[in-house]
Amino acid sequence: MAVYTDVSDAELSAFVARYDIGALLSAKGIAEGVENSNFLLQTESGFYILTLYEKRVNEADLPFFIGLMDHLAERGITCPRPVRDREGRALQRLAGRPAAMVTFLSGMSVNRPEAVHCAELGRTLARLHAAGADFSLRRANALSLAGWRPLCEQARDQADSVSPGLRARIADDLAALEAAWPRGLPEGVIHADLFPNNVFFLGERLSGLIDFYFACNDAFAYDLAICLNAWCFEPDGSFNITKGHAMTHAYEEVRPLTEAEVAALPVLARGAGLRFLLTRLVDWLNVPPGALVKPLDPLEYDRKLGFHRHATSAADYGLMR
Amino acid sequence: MAVYTDVSDAELSAFVARYDIGALLSAKGIAEGVENSNFLLQTESGFYILTLYEKRVNEADLPFFIGLMDHLAERGITCPRPVRDREGRALQRLAGRPAAMVTFLSGMSVNRPEAVHCAELGRTLARLHAAGADFSLRRANALSLAGWRPLCEQARDQADSVSPGLRARIADDLAALEAAWPRGLPEGVIHADLFPNNVFFLGERLSGLIDFYFACNDAFAYDLAICLNAWCFEPDGSFNITKGHAMTHAYEEVRPLTEAEVAALPVLARGAGLRFLLTRLVDWLNVPPGALVKPLDPLEYDRKLGFHRHATSAADYGLMR
């Protein structure tokens, strides 16, 4: 839930008047994303989402995110499409913050993905990777291997207060990943945060992707490893190999994985698990007292890492060869 | 801002399936009202607002609120219209809470009302009072004179910590109001909370009223007095008699006030001022540490009471005779 910045209806009306989308008819602050302030706007021409970028988004990255959505939409990936004002600008300022308006996408999040959803996701992820191939801007992944040690150091001293032995488990994970992290895998633009709440379905069909604010350049197979973490575990912490198979098989129908990617999958999955464990742990340890926003449970990823630590091959994830 | 209860998209889809409004296409938690959880739903037939009633709403009052919106809408007052499921029920349960779906209204709130908006509001308020005349349910006003002393006692001991002398000013107001509160004025259904954020405009035309969850039976002129407080003061605390005249004049074009109502206006306005001072003061003194929701400033009403305490006739409010 997130509306961090109050903007009056009068300010919003004046803002919308910069665009050729008709007058503003309605504006509602909406609870979407955890990083930014979002408003659902109704104008005479339809519905739009206005995002005000709060401090966790680096303003210098916005041209990458905005440009990427445009680039992907032009190549048939259904995602929010930046709207340009009469002077051709997509990136604006409002209430002292960077702001952008995008088209509204219908669709519902699936909170308990089934194998059919995992297959849809795998297929779309591969199409996303292909569509991003000729995108000209670059953005490094600040939350890959090199970013994990600083997060680890931030959380280390309090880790055992969250779960006994967590500090040692994280240290072991990090050491193993630093020793085994693959280099030279096929790379390009990845979404890097394609959790179920960022994927819309209408019925069993995937209808759109949102929230590109972690997108960056990194190994394609790492993006797949993030999705295996986010979509294919059951609430009890067990990995559902049927869902893993559905996702990886559908991915490979569009973009076959190289042998190096297949071999790297267990270490990539462990890395993705550690990445979300660490960021959630840091958030968990830094939640202000009395805050209304409940942080996500880091231990969900400690349990998932319990699986990754013992996985030996891509077959453990349902990827058949 | 308010989304207090999380409901998954799957639960919302199942809920919407009870209605004959098409499948759910999108659901967004929205920041509207401060008492309840609200979702903006898009279905195949259009947009709707789903409200989950949180603990500050008394469930026994819901048939009054739901019935009133239906009653008013049938009589041409533009307000959210309760949607009934296939079995004819408007009042439901969802996620353990009472819930109701209503139609979505376009429109924008005016944060700096001008005289033209005050006139529109006055006219619509009188039409609302006329439209409610034959509504069969009743609901007492828990926040009228008899409710103020308990609030006063709750806030008294800490009042001077908010503003020096506030305790004494409140005691004087309450004593004066208990001595002079009018009886026997024309009564009926009043909105009782018609602040600018509960009134929608499209351009300069009033397009709808929302949030009927303080509606009750009480003196019509008291509702007008609430609106004079909420709409006709300037940010510096001064009363704008031009706006007061516009509002009362437009009201009287639809429903002329009786001589008793005119005579009572200053005491009613002071009472309305005290009512919002007291509820805001109690909220202010009870805000949990670290809460994200900022309570409304009680002293805004202390300043408005500074005007009411010295008003001697309806003419001070712009009501000409």
Strand content of chain A: 15-25%
Poorly predicted spans of chain A: none
Helix-strand makeup class of chain A? alpha+beta
Q: How many beta strands in the DSSP annotation of chain A?
A: 9
Kindly report the average pLDDT value of chain A.
94
Q: Which architecture of the largest domain in chain A per CATH?
A: Alpha-Beta Complex
For the termini of chain A, the CA-CA separation is 42 Å
CATH domain class of the largest domain in chain A: Alpha Beta
Multimer state: homodimer
Biggest β-sheet of chain A, characterized?
Answer: 5 strands, antiparallel
| Largest Cβ-defined interface | A-B, 36 and 36 residues
Rg from Cα of chain A: 20 Å
Work out the helix count of chain A.
9
CATH topology of the largest domain in chain A: Aminoglycoside 3'-phosphotransferase, Chain: A, domain 2
Instruction: List the strand order in the largest sheet of chain A.
Output: 1-2-3-5-4
Shape of chain A: globular
GO molecular function (chains A, B): homoserine kinase activity
Keywords (chains A, B): Amino-acid biosynthesis, ATP-binding, Kinase, Nucleotide-binding, Threonine biosynthesis, Transferase
Catalytic activity (chains A, B): L-homoserine + ATP = O-phospho-L-homoserine + ADP + H(+)
Pathway (chains A, B): Amino-acid biosynthesis; L-threonine biosynthesis; L-threonine from L-aspartate: step 4/5
Structure keywords:
42% helix; 9 helices; homodimer; Aminoglycoside 3'-phosphotransferase, Chain: A, domain 2; alpha+beta; Homoserine kinase (chains A, B); Kinase-like_dom_sf (chains A, B); two-stranded antiparallel sheet; transferase (chains A, B); 321 residues; five-stranded antiparallel sheet; ATP-binding (chains A, B)
